[in-house]
Specification:
mainly alpha; cell shape; transmembrane helix; membrane; globular; 278 residues; cell membrane
Length: 278
Amino acid sequence: MTWVEAIVLGIVQGLTEFLPVSSSGHLRITSAIFFDRDAGASFTAVTQLGTEAAVLIYFAKDIWRITRTWLVGIRDSSVRSSLDYRMGWYVIVGSIPIGLFGFLFKDQIRTAGRNLWVVSTTLIVFAFVLAFAEYWGRQTRTLANFRMRDGIVMGFAQAMALVPGVSRSGGTLTAGLLLNLTREAAARYSFLLAIPAVVMSGIFSVGDVFEPAAPGTSVPSVAQMVVATIIAFGIGYAAIAWLLRYVAHHTLYVFVLYRVALGTLVLALLLTGTISAT
């Protein structure tokens, strides 16, 4: 991997991780168009540690409060009716689907799932699903009304993002809107829900990132991996603040249009033979 490639991919990861546009899909597309190779699923997983560190810092007070209340609630039944205690369980239970499917389909995710025909198609298809959710969702419920059913549904939606092009934030925001949550409530739970999955995925992928999984896969040095992750952290932190402000006052249709445009562009490049699908 060249330094330009590492820096560009770190920027792309930071910009797209929290937007409903699929960061893994963008890393795959950027690698194919500009560098004519694939940085690999492990590179994506490790750079996500940078953006997830941004979540941990941005929501540090919320995370500490939820964790502390959940631990106290294990022993003290008097706090179990609080939202913070219940939110701890919502995040734990909601993280099970992506952990289970990620373990069962690890090989497919790293190979067939990164095919650009798959990525471009899912970008477009799930753009229309997001548009339907934005149009149909009543957005009458806040986190105060959040229930275990919501956590489970959004957990399965997050698991769908194991396929590049779906988008973890896009899937969870879509599910949240279909459950009539406000955009901001869905986004906040989405950030919290991502923490266990992304941290564990990144840790388990550290050893794999320096080994080429297939011909045509670029391999970063330790220094390049560190720099890309730090860049993703800095840009990701700014992206969190921007997205929370944006969804509080705007619809998600701009992301729908962007996904369709990008997916269509990639399909055109594939059909003309400009880029390879694998």
